[in-house]
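Re: [ENG-882] Designed sequences occasionally contain unexpected residues at chain ends

Forwarding the minimal case from QA. Structure tokens:
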């Protein structure tokens, strides 16, 4: 079966639903692999295609339930790094991932991290549950936030043994009790130099939430929550990050840096939460097989991992925060969201060995995210 999605006058997307992930998913750490196929090489179910059709093999950003093969059809030769923009008002790939008014950052903490400067990660938001800060989130459009599903446990100290629908606040309760704060690097203005004279956070209610599957499958994988804001954000104060399945990257694209962010605890300075948003830099991601070997426990397949250390790690209160990669053009791409790892207090006290910090690989949920945010228009069967 073949589907076509009209984008512009001379450009369409064709997708064949019968392709399989094993054939199409390249190495995890290449954000996109672009290859050209002839119609004969593509699939027996694809009709013979005109020579003007270019078939792109995409990364595992697109899950097995979604289309894998995209063909850009044009009567003109497409320019290098061309970006296809669906008719979507909440996300523009040409605007995503751009920092706002960045200056030299202060040096400080996450645990062992540094202060984020105003406008450096303007897509990072604070999530409050019943007026209490609980988690970090990331703007993925001007009206949608992604975070971790485990942020919606009823108990502040959840365990996998006590994980099911009855242990979570319902998605309906979340609409009444959850607020999203955005537009500042500081949870509150203060007399401390890094948060002195900064703009206060803006508060936004949510009108839709989706995370119930995580609890229905007893917290085994799928630690992802999607929130829809009541109104669009003020783009003078914030921006949304890029998503891997919505931009085309060159085959040789390299990550300039990888960072995690959060307002979470720093036991080395005896702080439950940091008022100034913190960032932690990583040189690379850990191979998934090595991650499972280090962790020594059964891990789901939708994960990314970074190394832990005694003095630097993602901590309590950083849950749901973005794991991001900076591209060669300076823009930022969201790779994952912080899920779980070793207690920072135990690491700081050397009461536990550093293992791995685990993130949900959001690229495995691209179809779900697109559906929730309404990014792609309905496909037309042809």
């Amino acid at each position: 079966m073949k589907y076509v999605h009209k984008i512009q006058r001379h450009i369409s997307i064709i997708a064949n639903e019968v392709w399989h992930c094993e054939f199409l998913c390249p190495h995890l750490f290449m954000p996109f692999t672009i290859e050209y196929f002839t119609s004969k090489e593509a699939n027996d179910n694809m009709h013979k295609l005109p020579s003007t059709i270019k078939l792109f093999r995409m990364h595992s950003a697109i899950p097995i339930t979604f289309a894998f093969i995209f063909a850009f059809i044009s009567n003109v030769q497409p320019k290098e790094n061309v970006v296809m923009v669906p008719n979507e008002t909440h996300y523009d790939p040409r605007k995503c991932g751009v920092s706002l008014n960045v200056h030299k950052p202060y040096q400080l903490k996450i645990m062992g991290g540094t202060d984020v400067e105003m406008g450096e990660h303007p897509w990072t938001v604070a999530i409050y549950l019943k007026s209490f800060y609980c988690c970090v989130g990331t703007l993925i459009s001007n009206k949608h936030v992604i975070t971790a599903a485990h942020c919606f446990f009823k108990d502040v100290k959840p365990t996998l043994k006590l994980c099911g629908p009855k242990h979570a606040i319902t998605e309906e309760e979340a609409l009444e009790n959850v607020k999203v704060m955005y537009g500042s690097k500081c949870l509150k203005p203060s007399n401390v130099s890094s948060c002195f004279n900064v703009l206060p956070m803006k508060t936004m209610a949510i009108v839709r939430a989706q995370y119930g599957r995580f609890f229905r499958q007893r917290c085994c994988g799928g630690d992802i929550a999607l929130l829809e804001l009541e109104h669009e954000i003020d783009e003078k104060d914030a921006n949304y990050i890029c998503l891997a399945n919505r931009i085309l990257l060159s085959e040789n694209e390299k990550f300039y840096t990888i960072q995690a962010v959060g307002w979470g605890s720093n036991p080395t300075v005896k702080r439950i939460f940091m008022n100034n948003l913190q960032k932690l830099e990583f040189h690379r991601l850990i191979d998934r097989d090595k991650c499972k070997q280090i962790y020594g426990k059964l891990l789901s397949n939708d994960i990314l991992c970074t190394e832990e250390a005694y003095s630097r790690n993602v901590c309590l209160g950083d849950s749901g925060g973005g794991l991001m990669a900076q591209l060669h053009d300076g823009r930022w791409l969201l790779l994952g969201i912080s899920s779980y790892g070793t207690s920072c207090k135990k690491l700081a006290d050397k009461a536990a060995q550093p293992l791995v910090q685990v993130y949900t690989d959001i690229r495995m949920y691209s179809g779900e995210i697109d559906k929730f945010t309404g990014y792609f228009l309905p496909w037309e069967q042809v």
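QA comment: On inspection the terminal residues look reasonable. Helices lie at 21-24, 39-42, 171-177, 212-216, 288-295, 344-348, 366-373. Proposing we downgrade this to a documentation issue.
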